[in-house]
Design brief:
By secondary structure, the chain is an alpha/beta fold. The chain is built from nine helices and ten strands.
């Protein structure tokens, strides 16, 4: 099955563990490889929207904070510092391949306000018409409660795919996909290549894959529910190998595919 045949607008979510080393510093080689593949996809005529984590880790590395921040003030400060670092890097790398990027920082309350939501939709649409690549993150420096926070970029990417009317959501993580049990504790865990019924599988979700991200498999399944109920399929695949995106582009199958309900 060629998942890209009718996919003209794709949201790609990059997790912190995909973008950083275990030290917390940005994994420049992997980010460069991801940018190259995403630029190639954009060149093929696909509109790319990138939802990128990694701001807090980039901020920690930038100022030499020395540890993962635990207080809200420290997290927000590191996010504010790191976001500019991420955008500077993305701007330089995508420019090398002839593409322009644009930063969009989101809060959850935008979705509940019809005027603000319409404004966000119009901004996304105009940027895509201009062949820009929107790079989206949660506005962590000013998000403090359940009214403004999405609760992680897995959920944010699902809502972005929903209101941008994307054709596909690609969730790149540090795991190969959804397993029938936790592969970190069960060496016999089997990868589930396709999910048609989320209700039957949600009990198999474990915690976060690493301590550098805020999402886990539960959050990814929540994201899958949001998009599939809106008629948008989703993949979970391993972001440590950017070439896997070419496998999908060429009609192959990797990771776990979540079939849409419409």
């Amino acid at each position: 099955m060629n998942y890209f045949r009718d996919s003209h607008r794709i949201v790609v979510k990059l997790g912190t563990s995909t973008l950083t080393h275990s030290t917390g510093h940005l994994n420049l080689r992997r980010i460069e490889a991801l940018v190259k593949v995403l630029s190639d996809m954009q060149n093929s005529g696909i509109q790319i929207i990138l939802v990128s984590s990694g701001a807090v880790s980039a901020g920690v590395a930038k100022v030499g904070f020395g540890q993962k921040p635990t207080t809200m003030a420290d997290k927000q400060a590191m996010a504010a510092i790191g976001q500019s670092e991420l955008m500077k890097l993305y701007d330089r790398l995508f420019s090398d391949y002839g593409h322009t990027v644009a930063q969009i920082l989101m809060t959850k309350d935008i979705l509940a306000n019809p005027e603000r939501r319409a404004a966000a939709e119009n901004t996304f649409n105009r940027l895509l018409e201009m062949r820009c690549i929107p790079i989206v993150n949660e506005n962590d420096p000013v998000s403090t409660d359940e009214l403004t926070k999405f609760g992680g970029n897995d959920i944010l990417s699902a809502y972005v795919a929903q209101f941008c009317k994307a054709d596909l959501l690609l969730n790149l993580s540090d795991v190969d996909g959804l397993y029938d049990s936790d592969p970190r504790t069960n060496p016999d865990a089997k990868l589930i290549s396709r999910v048609d019924d989320l209700d039957a599988l949600e009990a198999s979700a474990g915690g976060a894959g690493t301590d550098r991200g805020t999402g886990g498999m539960i959050a990814k399944l929540q994201a899958a529910r949001i998009v599939t109920e809106s008629g948008i399929p989703m993949f979970i695949l391993n972001g440590h190998d950017p070439e896997l995106l070419y496998t999908l582009l060429d009609g192959g199958h990797v990771g776990t595919y979540f079939k849409s309900k419409k």
